[in-house]
Amino acid sequence: MIIPTNPFLNNSNEKFENDALVFPWDRAFFSSNGSTAIILTLRDLGIKKGSKIGVPAYICNSVPNCLIKHGYIPIYFDIEINFIPKHETINKLIHKRKIKALILVEYFGLFNIKINRFIKDIKAKNNIKVILDRCHSSFSGDFKISQLSRIDALVYSHRKTLRVFDGGCHLILSKSKLTNFHEIINIPRLSLFYIFHFIENFFYYTRLLNIYSEPIYKIRKMLKYFYKRKYKHINFQEKSKISNNLFSVLSNKNEIQKIKDTRRANYNFLIKELSQFKNKKFEIIHKKLSINETPQILPLLDLKGDLVSFLRKHCISAYHWPDFELPHIIKENKIMYSNSNYYNKSLICIPVHQSLKLEHLKYIISIMSKW
Ligand SMILES: Cc1ncc(COP(=O)(O)O)c(C=O)c1O
């Protein structure tokens, strides 16, 4: 099935700019995953193979791996303790190392005011393509093109926010070329995608097995380590393709609003409760959500060192990011990339996703109070 780029055109005469919740379909190109979207973005921005690309050191290795596989050279920089790079560091990369594009990450769907300000400053003084990686959270930040004028491209991996099979998506903001059509891929009800989710839900709801326990987590990590291809396959598709399940969410404004509201409410509830803890063995990193932030997770700093395994033992799916997927070169250079290594070890991701109910949140708080 083929759908027009603007599925709302028939029922709405309003300009997209007026509606921050409607995904700008005319500019979006859908693909299988975030790594594919990054490579397609570089191609669409005219960045030639062999070019150097600035990449934050606090990153999952699938990003630099896909760059290397497709002939680009990642040049790493450490982030500051506030999750934004230093101006001088980036200026040096632009002028001395001659990077042609800069990838910046909106970590966990947070810090978007700071990052927008940073991009404005960098773009005002330099001729560099800036790609904002919003793979962590689909509905964070502004969709209004007028607010994003300094950014050359946005990249998404919607499967990190929604239960979807695909999720790669990129929007070229600095070019007038728009996408004509999207092809919808129908995922059969008996596909592996649905079967895996059914099995996961079965164990979760029957409580026959703690699927978040440390041993299961270790097995999953091991399987991922051995079976995840170092270099993801990138499909240089000519047409924008979107799964029926992703389409059904992105084309539903009420659903998007509900997801945003739930994630924000979950985050705020946990912050409020955790702020009252007396004996603090953790630190809250980001206390107040700004109006446009839709969190992927709640980040905490573990000051003691075993919070993830403690929470997992109690069926809570906390994790470190990117954990064993931090690139080797970053792990080996602990002084040069000190903040990235520090966050990889001490930052803990606590779930706030839209499936959580109040009872789950209260349970997280009660377990945290025992730690
Ligand atoms: C910041 C960031 N960008 C891009 C990607 C790649 O996304 P995908 O796994 O969908 O290829 C990841 C993967 O974890 C990521 O963390």
Short description:
The protein is an alpha/beta fold. The protein is 36% helix and 16% strand. The longest helix is centred in the C-terminal third of the chain and has 23 residues, at 253-275.
Structure report:
The chain is of the alpha/beta class and 371 residues long. The protein folds into two domains: 12-187 and 238-250, Type I PLP-dependent aspartate aminotransferase-like (Major domain) (Aspartate Aminotransferase, domain 2); 253-368, Aspartate Aminotransferase, domain 1 (Alpha-Beta Complex), CATH 3.90.1150. It is 36% helix and 16% strand. It has a seven-stranded mixed sheet, sandwiched between helices. A three-stranded mixed sheet has the order 1-9-10. Helix 4 links the parallel strand 5 (101-105) and strand 6. Helix 1 packs across helix 2 (62-69). It is globular. The protein starts with a strand and ends with a helix. Residues 9-20 have low confidence and may be disordered.
How would the blueprint of this fold be written?
Blueprint: E1 2-4, E2 28-31, H1 34-44, E3 52-56, H2 62-69, E4 73-77, H3 87-95, E5 101-105, H4 112-125, E6 129-133, E7 153-157, E8 168-172, E9 181-185, H5 192-206, H6 214-227, E10 240-243, H7 244-250, H8 253-275, E11 282-284, E12 297-302, H9 307-313, H10 328-332, H11 338-346, E13 347-351, H12 358-370
Parallel strand pairs: 3-4, 3-5, 5-6, 6-7, 9-10
Antiparallel strand pairs: 1-9, 2-8, 7-8, 11-12, 12-13
Bound molecules: pyridoxal-5'-phosphate.
- How many domains? 2
Mean pLDDT, rounded to whole units?
89
Range of helix content: 25-40%
Query: Could you state the CATH homologous superfamily of the largest domain?
Result: Type I PLP-dependent aspartate aminotransferase-like (Major domain)
Task: Specify the oligomeric state.
Answer: single chain
Question: The biggest beta sheet, please?
Answer: 7 strands, mixed
Question: Which stretches of 5+ consecutive residues score pLDDT under 50?
Answer: 9-20
Small molecules in complex: pyridoxal-5'-phosphate
